[in-house]
Amino acid sequence: MEGYFGFNEMKALQELISPQNDELDLHDDLPQTGTRKLGPGDIGSIKADETEYSGPHAMLQGKGDDIWHSSEVSNAHDTNNMLDPRIIPEYEMKFKQQVTTEDVFLGMGFKTPSTSSCEWLIISIKLPGEAMENIELSIESDSIDIRSPRYRLQLPTPHSVNPNESSAKWQSDSSTLNLTLKLIRELDAVNF
Asked: What share of the chain is helix, strand, coil (3-state, %, to 5)?
């Protein structure tokens, strides 16, 4: 039976691959399987359940089988919309950013093609058969509300907006209301 390894040859191969050395350097850069580095938090007895967190990392307890906690749900969307018989109009949201030649051709600015670099939110709402005089528009920092005899639309905005720097334009030929909303984000000073 040439070519087969016996017990002694297998044992010698095992010692060659993983030698039993008591002077192993535990501080090398290679990860050690099955070992864990100990730190100051490991002093004392190990508790069975250490999943208690406090502050912003605390677990949110929902009611029953709820998948969302009430603090995670925006209150901007009114539940009375379900009882409102008016039609929800067709709308479209687009993000807009102001770029210069340095941004487009040279890549010198900090702007990216993503929505994080956009300054404006454009919302086009189609209200066929409606007159401009019958439309009521309310813009808050976190939602918009459009009401007319036929239509009702209440939308939470994806980011906070500045109602004072926003504008609305009515296109009578297509019965479309175009809203241009100025976005407010906490990193605007860094991005622009």
From this structure: 20, 25, 55
On whether the 79-191 domain is CATH 2.102.10.10, my answer is no
Residues 6+ apart with CB under 8 A from 89: 125, 126, 127, 146, 151, 153
Write b or e for each residue in 124-139: b if 16 or more Cβ atoms lie within 10 A of its Cβ, otherwise e. bbebeebeeeebeeeb
Domain ranges of the chain: 79-191
Confidence of residue 100 (pLDDT cuts 50, 70, 90): confident
Q: What is the CA radius of gyration of the chain?
A: 31
A 10 A CB-CB count for 119 gives: 17
The pLDDT tens digits for 56-76 are 556 666 666 777 666 666 554
